[in-house]
Design brief:
By secondary structure, the chain is α/β, with parallel strands linked by helices. It is built from 11 helices and 14 strands. A 6-stranded parallel beta sheet has the order 2-1-3-4-5-13, covered by helices on one side. Helix 1 packs across helix 3. The longest helix has 16 residues. The termini are far apart.
């Protein structure tokens, strides 16, 4: 029997688009030609809605590993959540309360979007509530669960290639360390891991130039202060910084020490948060498509609800945006 996925593949649009066309969603913004093509292919494949199976309205839970205060301090996860909420609104999907750990066992939900870093143990607990789970920004088990992540490994390669092509051989790293909320393990950061691997391969890695704290403005500031104190005149000419808040803190530390950016030290951050272009100098950064991560998670969940039972992992690309903090 034909499914919405079969129609989507034949027409060349997303499953969500096909679902909205077939359900006559008046808010959907696609051409009349596309709508006609969807109906034609549905007819060709003898598609029939599954009576009594699809609920009138889907209800999902967003499980967030951050508290509200933590989310305010790091807009990265807020942006992902907004992408989820926007897609849910477009598809008329209900969102139940946001939970730090998990929804109540007695609450009926059709799926879960888990935003943040979740251990395999936590994933198994969530699976007791529903098998329709999509993890965003982590992948506890590629063989079992759907996930959406960004390619931080390639992002790091692009940053270091940019630095090396411009003659930098003394390159530092300032980043954060995270642990699963159940404290089962420290999370390996692909930015730091890739930074070490690439520079070791090029025989220019110096562990004394790596500073690790938390992903916060304060630690970006304090760690750059420590680097300046440790190295003084031998301070690296370039730093890759794990996220934009840390990079903004690092910029402040350099300004206070009268160290010129970018003529003396280049800085590149990660995320491309809204204020990045307004600091002085404007921050070079790696753009992470956070809202698209959230939107893609809902699309994957819709596929699951349409009976896809093979786990799928979507890896989104990033984009290096060079501004005033690097040459």
């Amino acid at each position: 029997m034909a499914t919405i996925k079969d129609i989507a593949e034949r027409v060349g649009v997303s499953i969500a688009t096909v679902s909205r066309v077939l359900n006559n969603d008046a808010t959907l913004s696609v051409s009349d030609e596309t709508k006609q093509r969807v109906f034609e292919v549905a007819e060709e494949l003898s598609y029939r809605k599954k009576a009594g199976r699809r609920p009138t309205v889907y209800k999902i839970a967003i499980v967030h590993w951050y508290t509200e205060q933590e989310e305010l301090d790091d807009m990265y996860y807020m942006s992902i959540r907004q992408g989820v909420e926007n897609r849910c609104e477009a598809l008329s999907i209900q969102i139940t309360k946001m939970f730090k750990e998990s929804p109540k066992a007695n609450e009926e939900i059709h799926g879960i979007i888990a935003i943040g870093k979740f251990s395999l143990k936590q994933a198994k607990e969530l699976r007791k509530l529903t098998e329709n789970i999509v993890f965003v920004d982590s992948s506890p088990d590629d063989d079992t669960y759907d996930s959406v992540v960004s390619n931080f490994t390639k992002a790091t390669e692009n940053v270091l290639q940019h630095f090396i092509e411009r003659g930098h051989t003394k390159i530092g790293y300032i980043g954060g360390r995270e642990m699963y909320k159940d404290e089962t393990a420290v999370i390996d950061d692909p930015r730091r891991v890739s930074f070490e691997r690439i520079l070791v391969d090029k025989e220019i890695y110096d562990p004394s130039l790596v500073y690790i704290g938390s992903f916060s403005v304060n630690d970006g500031y304090n760690l750059m202060k420590q680097a300046i104190s440790d190295h003084r005149e031998s301070l690296p000419t370039a730093f890759f910084v794990g996220n934009d808040p840390m990079a903004i803190g690092a910029l402040r530390a350099l300004h206070e020490e009268n160290i010129q950016v970018p003529s003396r030290v280049n800085i590149i951050g990660v995320n491309d948060i809204s204020v990045s272009k307004y600091v002085h100098p404007p921050l070079s950064t790696v753009k992470i498509f956070t809202e698209l991560m959230g939107e893609t998670a809902i699309d994957l969940l819709m596929e699951r609800l349409e009976d896809r039972n093979i786990a799928k992992k979507v890896i989104l690309s990033t984009k290096l945006k060079i501004r005033g903090s690097s040459n």
